[in-house]
Design goal:
heterodimer; A: seven-stranded mixed beta sheet; four-stranded antiparallel beta sheet; 11 strands; B: mainly beta; five-stranded antiparallel beta sheet; about 0% helix
Amino acid sequence: GAVVSQHPSRVICKSGTSVKIECRSLDFQATTMFWYRQFPKKSLMLMATSNEGSKATYEQGVEKDKFLINHASLTLSTLTVTSAHPEDSSFYICSARTAGNTIYFGEGSWLTVV
Amino acid sequence: QKEVEQNSGPLSVPEGAIASLNCTYSDRGSQSFFWYRQYSGKSPELIMFIYSNGDKEDGRFTAQLNKASQYVSLLIRDSQPSDSATYLCAVNLHRGSTLGRLYFGRGTQLTVWP
């Protein structure tokens, strides 16, 4: 079974609203998680590194005020897309790193902004 | 984003043939290299990782790394129709960076026909 769970797997929201995506490590504690975005027929693009108890580190070109990341516990990181617009519609995937430096990916979350 | 380039494909091979997937990367600081397989609408699955120059074999899969040429490849022997998927090359800056912070290529779509 999945060791990293994302929720929701699919979400539709109205333009201008905010939506939160959760990433949970089920069997291990993850001090570091990562968020990616993937547009159709494109590759995964790293958005940010989420560190438990501290601020996320964003990749160049990713708006930190639009994509809010919170990593409040060792098993949960959340990505909130604020004031979502249709161009934010994408597949959002998280990954989590174990203490043994193994990376597990979540199942992904499809966001559609209408 | 660090540049990771893959031959765009699509690559089509007959069942039983060897499929060769190639990847180049721009950052000489890259320390670890990964091949993932991704089915449409799903999250990536790790096939292999390689850290050192040379070949690494795992079953039907062989990863080859040449850091001097900044080149990494994946060979799939005895290709099966079930191998049909998009193959993603990913690199990680290990030194001074966070393990798991992966930069992906656009992927090569492989089709293995019976």
